[in-house]
Design a protein that fits this description.
Length: 252
Amino acid sequence: MRLDERRRAIVAAVQNEKTVQLDELAERFAVSRMTIHRDLDYLESRGLLRKDRGSATAESSLLFESNFHYRAQMDLPEKRALAKAARALIEPGNVIMLDDSTTTLMICDELETIEHVTVISNSLAVCERLRSQTNVQLVMTGGNYVDTLQGFYGLICEQTLHRLRADWAFLSAPAAIGTALYHQDQEVVRMKRALMASAERSVLLLTSPKFTTRALNHFADITEFQRIFIDRRLDEASAQRLRQAGIPFDLV
């Protein structure tokens, strides 16, 4: 197996199994532990996985946001339900903003029945989903492209967003701690803040596992959103904290 083939196979194994032991990878691909170490170092530098105490994992950490393609496979029924709830807010002629998350991406599949809608996004995945839909006017921000996140970021992206206005901004987050939202990447935080600043109303879509994960950078309080949709698997303790804080939310 060539080097590039082995590394692609390692990424596929980690994404399929979430976590794989280093020794198991060495045995599976019939190479030395040192070779696997070098492979994992390279793949980690590309943001495709992370090394974690003798193993490789696709799971997020405080500093590592899981690869886009891995996240896109997770919690699909819940993300579809959240997207349907979000769709009910959008009216013909609206201008909406979608962030780079795999959760808000699902809204793209709900737009076919709207007579006309303008969609602004930094997400390449959004572009690929909507580029052939004749009822959608698609506006891409441009900026510095990051393949592992399938999105555009940086000064050009943020300046573009600040020059535009929208009726709705739809966002998600990799981590919710209490009533605060966090992300691993500062560039993504700035993009999300720019989205929120350019929209009349902001909508938060969260799958319930986000209340048990952690990330480094605070980017918003849940109170900043006009509508909040969370899937029905939300644990009672997290739901109670939101209610005690006086935050209205919809379980879908």
